[in-house]
Structure formats: C-alpha cells, structure tokens
Amino acid sequence: MLKPQFFPSVPRLYNKIYSALNAKFAEATGCKAWLVNKGLAAKRANYAANGAVTSGCYDKLIFKKVKMMLGGNVRCMVTGSAPIDKQVLDFLKICFCCPILEGYGLTESAAASCIMDTSDPVTGHVGGP
User: Fold this and answer.
1) Counting C-beta atoms within 10 Å of the first and last residue's C-beta, which end of the chain has fewer, N or C?
2) How far apart are CA 43 and CA 95, in angstroms?
3) What's the whole-number mean pLDDT along residues 86-104?
4) pLDDT, tens digit, 9 for 90 and up, residues 16-46
C-alpha cells in the first residue's frame, strides 16, 4: 500500500521471506518450474560474474511478482542487528532486483558504524567504517 523505496529490516524477517519464496518456487510445476529454475540460475550466474542483480527478461517474467510483495518500488534494502547467511542475501538480491546492504553497529552508539557499499558484490562482510 505504501510502496516504499527503502526497506530496512532484520535477518529474522529476511529469513522468513527467503523460506516463503523458496516454498513458492518449489510449488511450480512443468513449464513454470523450468522457467523459474532457468531464471534463478541465469541471475545467479550473472550476479557472480559482474554483481548485477537485474535481468530485463527474467525480471519481467518471474521476479516482477516478487518485487510487488514489497510494493514494487524498493531500490535498496538494509539489514543489521545480527549476521545473515550469505545464501539468503544473494537469493534475495536477485529476487528483489536490488542491493541488500548489511551493516554493523550498536543502536546505542552508532547504528551503522560499518555498512557495505551498494556496488560491492561480495556478500558476507559488513563493509568499512
């Protein structure tokens, strides 16, 4: 309803979204299952090769519905408060077609003392200060 452009959240919610998406993709059968698997494989390979999280064809055919889960306008997602699995982050990046930044810092002192750069394709670290 609000169609946010920025989506900050915690790993627990991202893990629930990851599980729901995997379950939804697993329900697909026949041609739809083939297309979903092909799209995921192509986007994973593209992300590993050059860090791109978008694909014109697959985004319109498959991942548009996934993006609409959050309103369709999300340009950046942020997570913090606890570590999150690399596999979950990479999967959500290609499904939501936007970067997900992982940050580190205590809320009481400096909420984002370290955060990833938006152009950094390496997952599993929180970036520099």
Assistant:
1) N
2) 9
3) 91
4) 999 999 999 999 999 999 999 999 999 999 9
The whole-model pTM stands at 0.86
The DSSP-derived string for the chain is ----SEEEE-HHHHHHHHHHHHHHHHH--HHHHHHHHHHHHHHHHHHHHH-----HHHIIIIIHHHHHTTTS---EEEE-SS---HHHHHHHHHHHTS-EEEEE--TTT-TTSEE--TT----SS----
Q: Which two tokens stand for residue 100?
A: 């997900």
Distances (CA, A) of 51 to 19, 40, 70, 79, 97: 23, 14, 22, 19, 11
